[in-house]
Automatic annotation (TrEMBL), chain A:
CDD domains: MoaE
Entry keyword Transferase: yes
The keyword Cytoplasm appears for this protein: no
Protein name: Molybdopterin synthase catalytic subunit
From TrEMBL, chain B:
Name of one Pfam family that matches: ThiS
Stated family: Belongs to the MoaD family.
Name this protein carries in UniProt: Molybdopterin synthase sulfur carrier subunit
Tagged with keyword Membrane: no
């Protein structure tokens, strides 16, 4: 089990909460992102996720480093699942521990925003009458250039 | 040689996930020109390019052995 990983099996969030728990942590925020059935009135049957795995794991680890530098005393673990996911399955889990709760909440939200900007993972929505690769959810070209 | 990787919608446009190409010495910008000649559906700006798992600049020069990937807009989470 790695602290920053792409997985193909069902995610057990507790594993990642346990990875960040330490005696000095007074708070752990655990975010799970799930497959949603309805998006803007269109019914999704299931999702297919694909990743550029080595780069995605590197970028997840980078997000962890960004957080640990920006919010002192935090520790982060992130996993994203790829392959075919059904409605309500967990696609992503983010665990952040910190001495106090406010930081753990803020840092956790920062992580999901950064995932949507820089981590090479793609989602295809499969509907009753078609399918489409989803991109540009943030409409933000930002990202880091080397 | 350089290995080129395609993902998501771009992979469906190329029909392959990976290919070896002789583009050492070219810049990322020149790689785009090459790709758009070969795959008419490709458009500059429709993807970022990563070299050896880091986002690259248009002026970066490709070297033999590099692993290059076209990264369409991401949609994880």
């Amino acid at each position: 089990m790695k602290a920053f990983e792409i997985v193909t099996e069902a995610i057990n969030p507790q594993v990642y909460a346990d990875l960040v728990l330490r005696p000095e942590a007074g708070a752990v925020t655990l975010f799970t992102g799930h497959v949603r059935e309805w998006t803007k009135g269109v019914r999704t049957l299931y999702l297919a996720y694909e990743a550029y795995v080595p780069m995605a794991e590197k970028k997840l680890a980078q997000i962890g480093e960004e957080i640990e530098q920006r919010w002192e005393g935090t520790k982060v673990a992130i996993a994203h699942r790829i392959g075919e996911l059904q409605i309500s399955d967990i696609a992503v889990v983010i665990a952040v521990s910190s001495p106090h709760r406010k930081t753990a909440y803020e840092a956790n939200e920062y992580a999901i925003e950064r995932i949507k900007e820089i981590v090479p993972i793609w989602k295809k929505e499969i509907w009753e009458d078609g399918e489409e690769w989803i991109g540009d959810q943030k409409k933000k070209p930002e990202g880091e250039l080397k | 040689m350089i290995s080129l990787h395609y993902f998501a919608g771009l992979k469906e446009q190329t029909g392959v996930s990976e290919e070896k190409v002789d583009l050492a010495g070219r810049t990322v910008d020149e790689l785009w020109q090459w790709a758009m000649d070969k795959y008419p559906d490709f458009q500059t700006g429709a993807a970022r390019v990563a070299v050896n798992e880091e986002y690259a600049l248009p002026t970066d020069v490709l070297e033999a052995g590099d692993v290059v990937a076209f990264i369409p807009p991401v949609s994880g989470g």
